[in-house]
Design brief:
Helix content: 25-40%
CATH superfamily of the largest domain: Medium-chain alcohol dehydrogenases, catalytic domain
Strand content: 15-25%
Mean pLDDT: 89
Bound molecules: NADP nicotinamide-adenine-dinucleotide phosphate, 2-acetamido-2-deoxy-beta-D-glucopyranose
Length: 364
């Protein structure tokens, strides 16, 4: 039998075809990642995804070096926010997720491995805390690419885990307190009565501590089991949200609120209204269509009492401010629980349950 005929009649051609298929599939995957990396050059931060193998990493880095002002970080810790599972549940559709596969997670602590073009503030080996762009995702992966301008450095006096709690929750609390309500954190400024709902949660527990750095009287709501904790964070009055007064948001001492940082969800305007001072403002960090309507109505009728929806746009310098407060011992992260990345689903479930006390941390 001539060799060619022998070869063609054997199982080899089929085997070769399968090997060819396998190889092309693996090459087809490579450009996907590479394209993602290059997206960054167009000004978008993005994730490298979970790059488990060295050659993925090498490949990723090669593209990365051509990028704009981004840092390529190896993660040490991350934290979860309700935002993460709201994307999964489709609550932010059609805005997010933009494409699949989508790696969730925005809050990270890690070490800079490489820096892209134009990065001035960071170098390989620096410890950093950052916010991953949710449009590209990638906080729950071993490596992530983040923009320089939403990265802050982490001093050695602070831990990766406590700082991983800060980004979204801490920045939201900071934004509400300093920018929306106008409280000065050096304690100057006139005294304000404020209410913080869900003060035991991620945003709420930072909000209580930050508000108390300013000249404020803080009333807080939380579940009975967390009353002592919230008091220890500095709240002057704490109410159990399951009692009638708690449900009505009434201050035990009868104080009217100059501002409410509303970290719980729900509550119609009619619940806030009787508790507000003349120029009282409700900052709603989970704006619903009902609250957007109230916002518009209050604006259109020139009402003195206002409802303000808050959408966070994170900035590196604000994150640095929070990290410095942690370093000075003026702000702390209450850790609800810590999970290794291999148990991320359990952490995810814990966040969906909605009963975290402080932050849920994931460690790498
Ligand atoms: N606008 C933005 O950019 C932005 C940024 C960050 C967060 N958010 C939103 O803000 C909300 C809070 O976020 P988070 O991270 O703080 O959530 P979280 O940590 O999951 O909040 C859980 C805590 O809320 C408490 N809680 C629930 N319902 C309550 C109520 N009616 N009264 C008082 N306490 C209550 C729970 O206490 P129990 O366990 O005792 O029930 C638990 O301790 C979420 O909807 C999130 O999506 C928005
Ligand atoms: C960070 O830089 C990008 C462009 O590279 C810009 O679009 C974005 O608004 C900046 N963010 C902040 C917080 O300055």
């Amino acid at each position: 039998m001539p060799p060619l005929v022998f070869f063609l009649s054997s199982p080899y051609p089929l085997a070769c075809f399968f090997v060819f298929l396998l190889l092309s599939a693996s090459f087809a995957l490579q450009p996907t990642l590479h394209t993602q990396i290059l997206n960054c050059a167009n000004g978008k931060a993005h994730a490298c995804g979970s790059i488990r193998k060295l050659w993925w990493r090498t490949f990723c880095l090669k593209g990365f070096l051509e990028l704009g002002p981004c840092c390529f970080d190896k993660l040490e810790a991350a934290s979860l926010n309700p935002f993460d599972w709201k994307i999964q549940k489709g609550m932010l559709w059609p805005l997010l997720p933009r494409k699949f596969p989508y790696i969730p997670g925005t809050d990270i602590s890690g070490e800079v491995m490489e820096v892209g073009k134009g990065v001035r503030k960071f170098k390989p080996g620096d410890k950093v805390v950052a916010v991953v762009n949710p449009f590209s995702g990638g906080g729950l992966a071993e490596f992530a690419v983040v923009k320089e301008n939403i990265t802050a450095s982490r001093p050695s006096e602070t831990s990766a885990s406590e700082c991983a709690g800060l980004p979204v929750a801490g920045l939201t609390a900071l934004e509400a307190i300093t920018k929306t309500i106008g409280i000065k954190l050096d304690g100057s400024g006139e005294r304000k009565n404020i209410l913080i709902t869900a003060a035991s949660g991620g945003v709420g527990h930072y909000a209580v501590q930050l508000a108390k750095l300013g000249n404020t009287h803080v009333t807080a709501t939380c579940g009975a089991r967390n009353i002592e904790l919230v008091k220890s964070l500095g709240a002057d009055e704490v109410i159990d949200y399951k009692t009638p007064d708690g449900a009505a948001l009434k201050s035990p001492s009868g104080k009217k609120y100059d501002a409410v940082i509303h970290c719980a969800v729900g509550f119609p305007w009619s619940t806030f209204e009787p508790n507000l001072a003349l120029n009282g403002k409700v900052v709603d960090i989970t704006p619903s269509s009902a609250s957007m309507l109230t916002f518009a109505l209050k604006k259109l009728t020139f009402s003195k009492k206002q409802l303000v929806p808050l959408f966070l746009f994170p900035k590196g310098k604000d994150l640095q401010y929070l990290i410095d407060l942690v370093k000075e011992g003026k702000l702390k992260t209450v850790v609800d629980s810590k999970y290794p990345i291999t148990m991320a689903e359990d952490a995810w479930g814990k966040s969906i349950d909605g009963h975290a006390t402080g932050k849920i941390i994931i460690e790498f």
